[in-house]
Amino acid sequence: MKSTFISLCVALVFAACTSVAPLQSMETSIRIRVECRDDPSTRRMVTMLLKQARARDITEQADIHFMVIEASYYEADNSMRKLQGIVDQLTQSAGVVKADMQWNPGVVKQNR
């Protein structure tokens, strides 16, 4: 009886000491990339829509005819439905040529 109790306690200690890996990294992030006309009103509208969720690392790159605006989002902070809704709104907006959402291969630089 005593040896059964000791072996049960030992089994519980070893079971409690094992580590469990998270199912998904807390740092997983998504990037929304928008190609639009290079004018102030379009840029302001795109930036406003991107900031509806918790946008991080918003960058703007001006080209000759178009502008590319990118924003990163932590997946843990934003639902995919909300981000897809932002992409849909951007796609339907005047002045936006292309808007897409993709997994962010890099690291988000801006703190939470």
* Strand/helix succession: HEHEEHE
What average pLDDT do the residues reach? 84
- Strand content is 25-35%
Shape: elongated
Structural class per helix/strand content?
alpha+beta
Helix proportion range: 25-40%
Which regions have little confidence, pLDDT < 50, spanning 5+ residues? none
Task: Tell me the strand order in the biggest sheet.
Answer: 2-3-1-4
CATH A-level architecture of the domain at 29-103? 2-Layer Sandwich
How would you characterize this protein structure?
This protein is α+β, with helices and mostly antiparallel strands and 112 residues long. 36% of the residues lie in helices and 29% in strands. The protein contains three helices and four strands; from the N terminus they run αβαββαβ. Strands 2-3-1-4 form a four-stranded antiparallel β-sheet, covered by helices on one side. A hairpin with a 3-residue loop joins β2 and β3. The protein is elongated.
Explain the layout of strands and helices:
Elements: H1 2-17, E1 29-37, H2 40-50, E2 56-62, E3 66-74, H3 80-92, E4 96-103
Antiparallel strand pairs: 1-3, 1-4, 2-3
Explain briefly what this protein structure is.
The chain has 112 residues and is of the alpha+beta class. Helices cover 36% and strands 29% of the residues. The radius of gyration is 23 Å and the shape is elongated.
Descriptive terms for the model:
112 residues, alpha+beta, 36% helix, Alpha-Beta Plaits, 29% strand
